[in-house]
# Entry
Amino acid sequence: MPVLYHKPPPPSDDKRWKIVETRMRRLGDRPPALIEALHAAQEAFGYLDTDALNYVGDTLGVPHSRVYGVATFYSFFTLKPSGEHTCVVCTGTACYINGAKDILAGLDRALHVKPKETTADGKISVLTARCLGACSLAPAVIVDGDVKGKVNVGDLVAQLEAM
Ligand code: FES
# Structure
């Protein structure tokens, strides 16, 4: 008798999960897709948190222990950053053309923080992602889960400094 297999629902209705889900489906939703699926999740969110790791593992039928092992073994994976707040800067094509580089430079100048780093006071972690699915709003960033479009560097720095 065939085993009925129910795929787990995405951790939230954030549409970036659709990108991850589609990639996993194209790869057959099977354990060998683990590394590529983790890449897809990291490209979309900038890092891997426990929700992402568990969702990928459950979808592909890989035990959580193995997923965590793989995610911590390879240096190209970034686990949820240590800062109190997270600012993910999109460096996908549309955002890059529209000033993502200036945003990163502005954060470095004002807060002395580069991608994959956390400010000295532990407040803000900065990450990059390849496309947040909001290209019409380029340049886009996500601060603590909130998408911000047509970002002005000065306003962003002011917001982060006030956190
Ligand atoms: S390239 Fe930045 S949101 Fe798509």
Notes: The chain is about 45% helix and 10% strand.
